[in-house]
Design a protein that fits this description.
Elements lengths: L1 E6 L2 E9 L5 E3 L4 H5 L19 E4 L4 E4 L2 E2 L9 H10 L5 H13 L5 H7 L8 H11 L11 H27 L12 H10 L10 H13 L7 H10 L5 H13 L6 H14 L4 H9 L20 H17 L4 H14 L2 H5 L6 H11 L7 H21 L22
Antiparallel strand pairs: 1-2, 2-3, 4-5, 5-6
Helix pairs in contact: 2-17, 3-6, 5-6, 5-10, 6-7, 6-17, 7-8, 8-13, 8-16, 8-17, 9-10, 9-17, 10-17, 11-14, 11-16, 12-14, 13-16
The structure holds carboxymethyl coenzyme *A.
């Protein structure tokens, strides 16, 4: 099948291609050579930047699958580290592979001692996302980052997944002025992170199973989301053959923004603001509808999901269950639910197909786990790490891969002279 383009009276046949889920695309890779024209698609809402076999989303039907597995059959059912293996290696690990993978991740969870000095030079007010991006970027200097040897690449991957949680917990400990708690090899990925966050040398710390399981589920829900802003950034940077640490740290920076991963922090701050404002959530719904207010309902809307975000559905249920199990009652959860109900019945949100996204309820759960607000996006980064790595690998191994270099429509001054 071809698509016909008529441009300035001339006809062109453009090839098409279909994905395995029947998505149709027009191949415009020769468009400029054939016609002299480029396409214009601000925000890339209609642009397929690559072919990818990692994650499938059907935004109209609210479907999210990692390597073919529905998110509902992974979150809370398959451990995060196995999902990480799935994303990176394409298949869920068998028992032997899972044991070896977990062992390797544990063996790579210690941060290079030389890197630790860097923590001391950030001001105490530094945002932990800034610290995390800086630390991951700096890892390039400590390991054979530019090696093309497969053994080195695999080791760098293990280091990233193993160490990201350690770096995250250390950045928190530094911010509260407490001694660093090193990882322990007898604990699971999430139990290790919680212990490094909350234990002190002054006493024993028993990791709550409820907290460990809740965190694991949250990380699985964040593990990949095809060509979102941060993943596209990772792919963009890696297209220049930049090393994995340079590419992934760019992803951390992209995730930080409040329209992307930073929305989870922004949601909680919005809920706190509403609570301090006598809980008047209806006022905020009205503000979000007023384009002049500059205010958006954070945690609402999505470029791809136009029905519901399946992650938000799971998280809403989980928020109730986790708070209940931990015996936490949080007025912010009630405000979030009321806000959602009002917005979902308001024609402004209905017409624009704006629904709660993954960031709407995750913050309430993080808060119940005792995670400080400015660490929320760091948690998102820990979850997204396997996705970024899987995309970095896919880019690297793509025989059709080329450096990413979009065109533009120039609108500046025409030729003039000083
Ligand atoms: N509150 C109020 N109005 C909104 C919102 C919102 N949260 N989101 C979109 N709109 C309106 C927007 O004003 C526009 O209206 P109109 O057509 O009248 O001009 C329409 O809906 C379409 O919005 P858009 O900005 O063109 O949509 P987009 O696909 O470019 O942006 C988005 C998607 C997620 C950035 C946006 O919905 C948003 O800013 N949401 C709030 C931030 C947020 O929750 N981000 C997390 C995204 S999900 C997880 C992740 O990626 O990290």
């Amino acid at each position: 099948m071809t698509a016909k383009l008529i441009l300035e009276g001339k006809e062109y046949d453009l090839p098409t291609l279909r994905g395995t889920e029947n998505e149709l695309a027009i191949d415009i890779s020769k468009l400029r050579a054939q016609t002299g024209a480029v396409t214009y698609d601000p925000g890339y809402g209609n642009t397929g930047s690559c072919q990818s076999a990692i994650t499938f989303i059907d935004g109209e039907a609210g479907i999210l699958r990692y390597r073919g597995y529905p998110i509902e059959e992974l979150a809370g059912k398959v451990p995060f580290t196995h999902v990480a293996y799935l994303l990176i290696h394409g298949e869920l690990p068998n028992a032997e592979q899972a044991a070896a993978w977990s062992e390797s991740l544990r063996g790579n969870s210690l941060v290079h001692e030389g890197l630790l000095n860097f923590f001391d030079h950030f001001p105490v007010t530094a945002h932990p996302m800034n610290i995390l991006a800086g630390m991951i970027s700096s890892m390039s200097s400590f390991y054979p980052a530019d090696s093309t040897d497969d053994a080195h690449i695999q080791q760098n991957i293990l280091r990233l997944i193993g160490q990201v949680k350690t770096l995250a917990a250390f950045s928190y400990k530094k911010s509260v002025g407490e001694p660093l708690i090193y990882p322990r090899n007898d604990l699971s990925y999430c139990a290790n992170f919680l212990r490094m966050m909350f234990a002190t040398p002054c006493g024993e710390y028993e990791v709550s199973k409820t907290m460990e399981d809740a965190l694991d589920m949250l990380l699985v829900l964040h593990a990949d989301h095809e060509q979102n802003c941060s993943t596209s950034t990772v792919r963009m940077v890696s297209s220049s053959e930049a090393n994995i640490y340079a590419s992934v740290s760019a992803g951390v920076n992209a995730l930080w923004g409040p329209l992307h991963g930073g929305a989870n922090q922004a949601v909680l701050e919005m809920l706190q603001r509403i609570e301090a404002d006598s809980g008047d959530y209806k006022k905020y719904v009205e503000m979000a509808k007023d384009k002049n207010s500059g205010f958006r309902l954070m945690g609402f809307g999505h470029r791809v999901y136009k029905n519901f975000d399946p992650r938000a559905k799971l998280l809403k249920k989980a928020a109730d269950a986790v708070l209940d199990e931990l015996g936490v009652s949080d007025p912010l959860l009630d405000i979030a639910k009321s806000l959602e109900e009002v917005a979902l019945n308001d024609s402004f949100f209905v017409e624009r197909k704006l629904y709660p996204n993954v960031d709407f309820y995750s913050g309430v759960i993080y808060r119940a786990l005792g995670i400080p607000t400015d660490m929320f996006t760091v948690l998102f980064s820990i979850g997204r790490m396997p996705g970024w790595i899987a995309h970095w690998m896919e880019m690297r191994n793509d025989p059709d891969g080329r450096i990413h270099r979009p065109r533009q429509i120039y609108t500046g001054a025409t030729l003039r002279h000083p």
